[in-house]
């Protein structure tokens, strides 16, 4: 019998599509802007996949779930068809980090074998602040920012990791738990730090690495070369809408293009000028109705390889389909690609992810008239 502690941060990820770059302390503002909860949907996707895998496994292991009431865990487990459920903590009417911490203490008292959670880096911090490295954890990705190494690359892959660990097919690894200061993040300041380590079931294809901050020689010169390539493409289509994704690589390129770009937001240019800054999903969709030709320029997260689904949830499946996968331009310095083995997509829409991944290799601009084909995750 395997005992699993399970909890959901029900507000995790709500701030992404409405441009809040996180939800800590601003859940009410996210709701006011029209944000919809996504964590229970992501958790249910993982649980249903786990249930499917168990049904197809000879001599499937018996699981007992210790969880939190309502939207913090119990509802999703029941919806996925699990029966052996014990509620060890009743969440407040408006769940908070205190509920997460109280539940984790109950999990540890009951000596669970692993804690499965759905959330982002902040949730991982809340959990590991109590567990340390004493009890393994595994995260279903649902936050705006997920730079820690404790998350599966998608909800479905997280289910596969969990089952392989339960069946003793994979072991544990020590990973970094990192987080951004969300208040500074919303002010367009990058303030990331390592908080602690945790142990997690490790399968290198399905567990994401912690975000790597990568700097190579002559980075500025390389980014200027990339900018020169993009300038030619933009100048050739002056009436096109060009969306610039977040990150230091994009900001450096924008600077070389003489465009004032936010570091961590989605910005838009057309006719040589800025037509939108730090855009939310609905603002991007409105711009797309005004421009028939459009391009989206993105840079993968160093080390992890995520192109979509980490820190840029404003680029929703609806947005990506309207832009068209063929209109996405990827850029990266050679130093970043040296630590980025594959490109990953986790848009929240499995069909869209499958379409993007089906291309097997994607071109990445690495300099002036220089591209490199990079493999997509299988």
Please name the defining characteristics of this protein.
378 residues; alpha/beta; Rossmann fold; 2 domains; seven-stranded mixed β-sheet; 16 strands; 23% strand
What spatial order of strands do you see in the largest sheet?
10-9-8-11-13-15-16
CATH topology category name of the largest domain: Rossmann fold
**Runs with pLDDT <50, length 5+?**
none
- Amino-to-carboxy terminus distance: 32 Å
Q: Can you tell me the CATH architecture of the largest domain?
A: 3-Layer(aba) Sandwich
**Estimated structural class:** alpha/beta
Provide a descriptive summary of the structure in words.
There is one protein chain. This protein is of the alpha/beta class and 378 residues long. The chain has two domains: 2-201, Rossmann fold; 219-375. The chain has 13 helices and 16 strands. The strands form four sheets. Strands 10-9-8-11-13-15-16 form a seven-stranded mixed sheet, with helices on both faces. It has a five-stranded parallel sheet with strand order 3-2-1-4-5, with helices on both faces. Strand 9 and strand 10 form a beta hairpin. Helix 10 packs parallel to helix 11. It starts with a strand and ends with a strand. The mean pLDDT is 87.
Q: How is this fold's topology laid out?
A:
Layout: E1 2-8, H1 27-32, H2 39-55, E2 63-68, H3 74-79, E3 85-89, H4 97-109, E4 114-119, H5 121-131, E5 137-141, H6 155-166, E6 172-180, H7 182-186, E7 192-201, H8 219-235, E8 241-244, H9 248-256, E9 267-270, E10 273-276, H10 281-288, E11 294-298, E12 306-308, H11 317-323, E13 328-331, H12 334-338, E14 344-345, H13 350-357, E15 361-367, E16 370-375
Parallel strand pairs: 1-2, 1-4, 2-3, 4-5, 8-11, 11-13, 12-14, 13-15
Antiparallel strand pairs: 6-7, 8-9, 9-10, 15-16
Helix pairs in contact: 2-6, 4-5, 8-9, 10-11
């Amino acid at each position: 019998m395997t005992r699993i502690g399970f909890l959901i941060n029900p507000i995790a990820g709500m701030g992404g599509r409405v441009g809040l770059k996180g939800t800590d302390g601003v859940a009410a503002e996210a709701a006011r802007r029209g944000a919809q909860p996504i964590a229970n949907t992501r958790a249910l996707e993982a649980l249903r996949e786990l249930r499917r895998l168990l049904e197809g496994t000879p001599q499937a292991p018996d699981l007992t779930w210790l969880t939190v009431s309502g939207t913090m865990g119990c509802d999703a487990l029941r919806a996925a068809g699990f029966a052996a459920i014990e509620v060890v903590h009743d969440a407040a009417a408006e769940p908070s980090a205190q509920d997460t911490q109280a539940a984790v203490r109950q999990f540890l008292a009951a000596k669970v074998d692993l804690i499965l959670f759905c959330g982002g880096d902040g949730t991982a911090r809340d959990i590991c602040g109590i567990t340390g490295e004493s009890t393994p954890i595994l995260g279903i990705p649902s936050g705006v920012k997920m730079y820690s190494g404790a998350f599966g690359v998608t909800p479905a892959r997280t289910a596969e990791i969990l089952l392989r660990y339960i069946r003793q097919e994979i072991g544990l690894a020590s990973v970094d738990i990192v987080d951004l200061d969300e208040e500074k993040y919303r002010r367009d300041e990058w303030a990331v730090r390592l908080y602690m380590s945790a142990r997690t079931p490790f399968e290198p294809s399905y567990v994401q690495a912690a975000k790597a901050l990568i700097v190579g020689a002559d980075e500025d010169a390389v980014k200027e070369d990339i900018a020169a390539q993009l300038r030619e493409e933009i100048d050739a289509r002056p009436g096109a809408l060009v969306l610039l994704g977040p990150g230091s690589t994009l900001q450096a390129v924008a600077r070389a293009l003489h465009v004032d770009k936010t570091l961590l937001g989605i910005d838009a240019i057309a006719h040589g000028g800025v037509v939108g800054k730090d855009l939310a999903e609905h603002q991007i969709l409105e711009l797309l109705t005004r421009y028939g030709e459009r391009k989206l320029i993105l840079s993968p997260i160093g080390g992890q390889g995520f192109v979509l689904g980490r820190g840029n949830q404003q680029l929703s499946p609806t947005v990506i389909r309207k832009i068209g996968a063929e209109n996405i331009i990827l850029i990266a310095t050679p130093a970043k690609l040296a630590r980025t083995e594959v490109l990953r997509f986790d848009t929240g829409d499995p069909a869209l992810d499958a379409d993007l991944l089906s291309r097997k290799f994607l071109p990445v601009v690495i300099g002036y008239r220089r591209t490199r084909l990079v493999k997509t995750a299988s």
